[in-house]
Amino acid sequence: MITTNNLCLKYVGVSFYYVGRSLTTVFNVVCSYLILGQSTSWRALLCCAVIIGGFFLGVDQEDAAGSLSVLGVVYGVAASLCVALNAIYTQRTLPAVGDSVARLTMYNNTNAVVLFIPLMLFSGEFGEIIYFPYLLSTHFWALMTISGVFGFLMGYVTGWQIQVTSPLTHNISGTAKAAAQTVIAVAWWQEVKSVLWWVSNVVVLGGSAAYTAVKRKEMIANHESNAKPRGSVSPDREPILSSKSSGDTSEDV
Length: 253
Fold this sequence. Notes:
By secondary structure, this protein is an all-alpha fold. The protein has one domain. It is built from ten helices and no strands. The radius of gyration is 25 Å and the shape is globular. The protein starts with a helix and ends in a 26-residue tail after the last helix. It comes from Ascaris suum.
C-alpha cells in the first residue's frame, strides 16, 4: 500500500492523486464480496458506477492537458486496491491480536522493514544509498525521524478508525480527505484546471457521498429490523388475556 501510494505520487501530481485513488470505494465493494461474502444493493452499485465515470473523466481531462502518466494511473488503481484490502484485513486481523491497535501497527511496521529489504536489494537502491549526499546529514535524519513518527501515528489512527467504525467508513473518510488535498494542491501550485477536470472531482466526491448515504440508510434499516423483537405486540393492541383482574385496576374511594 505504501509503495503503490508513493509510486503514484511519483508519476502524477498531488492534484490528480485524488482522482487516481478514487476507486477505493469500488474495490471495497468488490473485495467485500469476494473475501467477506457481503453482497451490495443495486443502489450502492449505481453509486460505484458514478465514481468510475468520474475516474475516467478525470483521466480523459488529464490526458487532454498533456500531463497524463499511464504508469501513474496504474499505480493509483493498484493503490486503491491495496487500501481497500488493508482496511478489510485490518478488521479481520484485530481479533487475533486481542483487538490491540498498537500491537497490530507494530507488527505491520516490522513486516514492512523485513519485506522492503529484498525489494531494495533487487532494485539496486543499496548502491544509491552509499552515494547519497545527505546520508550523514543531521537535518535529513531529523526529517526522516519526524516522518517515521507521523507514519506510525497515521497507521495507528487508521487501525483505530477501522476498529471503531468499518473499512467502508475509513475509505469514505479517506476520499473526503483526498478531495481536500486536491483543492489545497491546486491552490498551492497555482495550477489552472479545466471545468471538466473539476467536474470529474465533483462527480467522484458526489458518487462517494451518495454511496455513504445509501449504505447509511441500509444500515439503519437492518438495525431497526434486528432490534424489533419477534412476536412483540403492537402498541395499539391490548392483549386478550391480562394478568390483572378487573378488581385490581379499580381505585379506592
